[in-house]
Automatic annotation (TrEMBL):
<dbReference type="InterPro" id="IPR015422">
    <property type="entry name" value="PyrdxlP-dep_Trfase_small"/>
</dbReference>
<dbReference type="InterPro" id="IPR015424">
    <property type="entry name" value="PyrdxlP-dep_Trfase"/>
</dbReference>
<comment type="similarity">
    <text>Belongs to the class-III pyridoxal-phosphate-dependent aminotransferase family.</text>
</comment>
<dbReference type="GO" id="GO:0030170">
    <property type="term" value="F:pyridoxal phosphate binding"/>
</dbReference>
<dbReference type="InterPro" id="IPR005814">
    <property type="entry name" value="Aminotrans_3"/>
</dbReference>
<dbReference type="GO" id="GO:0008483">
    <property type="term" value="F:transaminase activity"/>
</dbReference>
<dbReference type="InterPro" id="IPR015421">
    <property type="entry name" value="PyrdxlP-dep_Trfase_major"/>
</dbReference>
<dbReference type="GO" id="GO:0005829">
    <property type="term" value="C:cytosol"/>
</dbReference>
<dbReference type="Pfam" id="PF00202">
    <property type="entry name" value="Aminotran_3"/>
</dbReference>
<protein>
    <recommendedName>
        <fullName>Aminotransferase</fullName>
    </recommendedName>
</protein>
<dbReference type="InterPro" id="IPR049704">
    <property type="entry name" value="Aminotrans_3_PPA_site"/>
</dbReference>
<keyword id="KW-0663">Pyridoxal phosphate</keyword>
Length: 470
């Protein structure tokens, strides 16, 4: 008998027996074949309620996703209402009010010249879509020799082959290295704590980074380069790294000089996470040709991401084929768009971007005060409600822990045992060395809850420091 069929004559299983059978069969492929993830039974606000009865403060919003918190009834109702109208159409022939309204809501007035929105299902898909649109832009302009992308080391842009090809996350690329897209080169990260010289000023560091980028343009041949892509604030790979002052303005000037597109990846840091809707708004004189967003867009209520495209790029299509040669079956999915629209309305109505900026200042103060006496804390950095703590064995030399120690992961586990979820990272410095944890709580977090998070994080760090003789 097929294992997918049931025998009608067999006695019915009790709930306990059914649960046991599910655990024994375990047909779901998890990230690890050894460690089974924790079962979450219910989530509400900033809390996750586990199967074992324990409650966890979600201090990382999953992976900087749950912007408005869990269990918002307004979003649930928007999803149900959309299901009652239309659950799916194919975008080759149809559109829906949910998709149209979401695009219009975000891009009303074409902010920063961003004229069109393209919605897909994940951050990787958004980056992939941006890369293809960038290539098509030059194809339409008769510059089909442009095939090169330039990105930064210690970056992350996604898990699909092209998105992974331009990423600088070493560990994720190892099994696929020989099969990745080859027309990619990398420049240094704008990561002052690790890469600025001890005698170098911030301005000199910026100048050096920009010279390196221009040198790479010239080395490849600027006429062969499609785009430079960078995270406005680096996400989980290096942990909330902000660029030195003037860096992105200089990048924009270089791209303009050589006719190269600038794609800013705000999958993790955008949609209010850093205290402004677009993270690039806090950089001076920077307007991207495309910006990708995802995590906070739908707030975890549905799978959705987006590419916001500047008029300059759209005009090239208008003057050529009048079409974007790309599409997905679940593109602009009405349920996802309805969920995202409801999330964005909550963010705007409740002023949660401004609240994120204000609570970010509280979080920074608490982190610096709570962790000031932790010898393993080398650097605290971030913006808005997007902060990371980088760990070192020696503060003075910035020596890292041996990778086998898994210090950041151990801190995350110790915090979880104490009721707080943070996001661990390894290979912070160069893909092999370094550890950090990331904090990115929902925008609705309270000052009291931030106090608990930072106290628990300190206790978790101290527990690991004690084990390693610090």
């Amino acid at each position: 008998m097929s294992p997918s069929r049931t025998d009608d004559s067999a006695p019915a299983l009790s709930n306990a027996e059914s649960a046991m059978q599910i655990k024994q069969e375990n047909h779901l492929l998890h990230r690890s074949l050894i460690e089974h993830p924790v079962m979450v039974e219910r989530a509400e606000g900033v809390e996750l309620h586990l199967e074992n009865g324990k409650t966890i403060i979600d201090a990382c919003a999953g992976a900087a996703v749950a912007a408005v918190g869990h269990g918002r009834q307004e979003v649930h109702q928007a999803i149900i209402s959309q299901l009652e109208k239309v659950s799916y159409v194919h975008t080759q022939s149809y559109t829906t009010s949910a998709a149209e309204e979401l695009a219009n809501f975000i891009l009303e007035g074409s902010p920063y010249g961003l004229e069109k929105a393209f919605f897909v299902g994940s951050g990787s898909e958004a980056v992939e879509s941006a890369l293809k649109l960038a290539r098509q832009y030059f194809y339409e302009k008769g510059e089909s020799q442009r095939i090169q992308f330039i990105s930064r080391r210690q970056s992350y842009h996604g898990n699909t082959f092209a998105a992974m090809s331009i990423s600088g996350n070493v560990a994720r690329k190892v099994p696929y290295q020989d099969t990745l897209f080859q027309h990619v080169s990398n420049v240094s990260p704008a990561y002052a704590y690790r890469y600025k010289g001890t005698e170098e000023s911030e301005e000199q560091f910026t100048t050096r980074l920009l010279q390196e980028l221009e040198d790479e343009f010239l080395n490849v041949g600027p006429e062969n380069v499609i785009a430079f892509i960078a995270e406005t604030v680096v996400g989980a790979t290096a942990g909330c790294v902000t660029a030195p002052e003037g860096y992105f303005a200089g990048v924009r000037r270089l791209c303009n000089k050589y006719g190269i597109l600038l794609i800013l990846d705000e999958i993790m840091c955008g949609v209010g996470r850093t205290g402004s809707f677009f993270a690039f708004e806090q950089e001076k004189d920077v307007v991207p040709d495309m910006v990708t967003v995802a995590k906070g867009l739908g707030g975890g209520y549905a799978a959705i991401s987006g590419v916001f495209v500047h008029k300059k790029v759209i005009d090239a299509l208008r003057q050529g084929t009048n079409a974007y040669n790309h599409g997905h079956t679940y593109q602009a999915h009405p349920i996802s768009c309805a969920a995202a629209l409801a999330v964005q309305k909550i963010i705007r109505k409740q002023g949660l971007v401004a609240q994120c900026a204000a609570m970010g200042q509280v979080l920074e103060h608490l982190l610096r005060s709570e962790l000031q006496n932790c010898p393993s804390v080398g650097h605290i950095r971030g913006r808005g409600l997007f902060w990371a703590v980088e760990f070192v064995r020696d503060r003075k030399t910035k020596e890292t822990f041996d990778a086998s120690v898994k210090f950041g992961l151990r801190v995350q586990q110790a915090a979880f045992e104490r009721g707080v979820a943070v996001y661990p990272g390894a290979g912070t410095v160069d893909g092999v060395r370094g550890d950090h944890v990331l904090l990115a709580p929902p925008f609705i977090i309270t000052e009291d809850q931030l106090g608990i998070i930072c106290r628990v994080l300190r206790e978790a760090i101290e527990s690991q420091e004690k084990l390693h003789g610090l």
